[in-house]
Structure formats: structure tokens, C-alpha cells
Amino acid sequence: MSDIRCVLFDIGGVLVDWHMSWITSEISKQFEINEDIVTNAFSKHLHDLDSGKINEKIFWQKIAHDTNSIPLKENTESLWDIYFRKRAKLNHDVINLAKTIKEKSYTIGIISNIEKITHKVVDDWKVLTIFENKFLSYQIGFSKPDPRIYEYVIEKLPFDSNQMLFVDDKESNIDAAKSSGMNAIHFTNCSELEKSLFSYGIRI
Predict the structure, then answer these.
(1) Which CATH class is domain 20-87?
(2) Cis preceding-peptide flag for 145 (omega within 30 of 0)
(3) What is the DSSP letter of 19?
(4) What is d(CA 53, CA 71) in angstroms, rounded to the nearest whole number?
């Protein structure tokens, strides 16, 4: 029988319906840059933004440099704020599921690759208050799937790693969590998540 005592959720793609391709698509359209080029630039610099090594302004300057976009280089708006507010939506089914898990006396928390701007947006939605533990990449200095972020979480929580269950929509993050000793579920939708939780003894 599973001995799960703590369930940890990702934000983007799990608690919030958000996909990185949405912002690369928006940037591609607004600044008339080939989307594959934008996506490649994101892949190169996103971890530095998520881990707090650079701020949003520097991030866009690097994207502008890599895509040879003068209009993007001259941009002064917070594009993360604009497009995240425009496209992202709360996944109320998963949030309600998390609330139910908490009511059943499990500890719930977050492990998320997120930068300061989108954290503020989600904070504005007043959804993070139900989670007792929040491990946010830009505050910690590491981002998934870097094993150090999972090691940090395991060190900070009063549970053994095998008592933790992590829910994320990216397989690379799931694999890294499992390698750290955590249990993990690859999120696809809420109904499948309920079934997976049941297999760990968490009955909703």
C-alpha cells in the first residue's frame, strides 16, 4: 500500500491551462518572426529566466538578438504579463481536486518552473493560497528537470521522498522526479489524474 503524505502540483499545464507554444506563437505573429526561430531562442534562454538568472527585460533582449528582431529589441512592454493574462486559464477541475486532497489531510504543494511576472499573475487570481508549500524555480535558482530542484524540495519537506507524489504535464520532469526518489504522475487530464491518484491510495 502506498504511503503518500504529500501531493505536489505543477502550475503551467496542470493547475493552469497554459502551453509555451501559445506565447511563441503570439511573439511570432506580433513581431513577424518565424515561429521555429522564436521557439529555438526560447529553448536557449528560458531556463535562465525561470531560474531567476535573468529578468524579463534581459530575456527579451536575448530573444531579439537571436531572432534579429529590431522591433522586439525596442519593445518595452511586459509581454509575459500581456500574453499570459490573455491566454492562460485556471484549471478549476484540478484546483478543486487539490482542495479535496487537502481536506483528506494530505499536504499539498507546488513545484513550478515560473518567472516573477507570471507568478504575480497567478497570485492575482488568488489560487495559490490553498497550497502549504510553494517551490518556484525563479526563487530557488533551479528549474525542472534539473535534479537540484527536486533535491531542494525533498530537503525542505518533512517527508521521505517516497511519501511525495508529483503531478506534471511534461515527461522529462516526471522522469527527473522519479530519479530523485519521488513518486510521479504524468498529467494529461483531470479524470485520468483521479484514476492515477486512486492507484496511490488517494480516493477522491
Answers:
(1) mainly alpha
(2) yes
(3) -
(4) 24
- Chain-centroid distance of CA 13 in Å reads 7
CATH of 6-18+88-199, one of 3.40.50.150, 3.30.70.260, 3.40.640.10, 3.40.50.1000: 3.40.50.1000
11: which 3 cell numbers? 502550475
Listed in order, the ranges of the chain carrying CATH 3.40.50.1000 are 6-18+88-199
Distant-in-sequence, close-in-space partners of 155: CB < 8 Å, separation ≥ 6: none
Mean pLDDT, consecutive 10-residue stretches, the chain (204 aa), reads 90 96 97 98 97 97 98 97 96 97 97 96 94 97 97 98 98 98 98 97 91
DSSP 126: T
